[in-house]
Amino acid sequence: MSPCRVMKLKDGAMAIVCSRGSRSNAKPCYVCGQPSRFLCDYPVTKRLVAKGPMEYPNTTTGTCDKPMCERCRNNVGENRDYCNAHFRLSRKEDPTP
What we know:
Blueprint: E1 4-8, E2 14-18, E3 38-39, E4 43-47, E5 59-63, E6 67-68, E7 74-77, E8 80-82, H1 84-93
Antiparallel strand pairs: 1-2, 3-6, 4-5, 7-8
């Protein structure tokens, strides 16, 4: 199957659309098992495992990255989604009543 295809647009123009294939390799949602389209964006600190002399800090800042589907994500802003645990945690941290 070719990664590019020709599409005819409503106004009669033609377009070539290319992709790397379908998202069938998407990880399952951690809640329901459906294919995920989102990752948890909650900021976390992760420990790095060193296998020799360390020339870098032993922690890195990143995001949770739990895979979530449209139905199970908690959208908290533009392009920002949290898993259930981090959504609850973020509500506890919010000083507004």
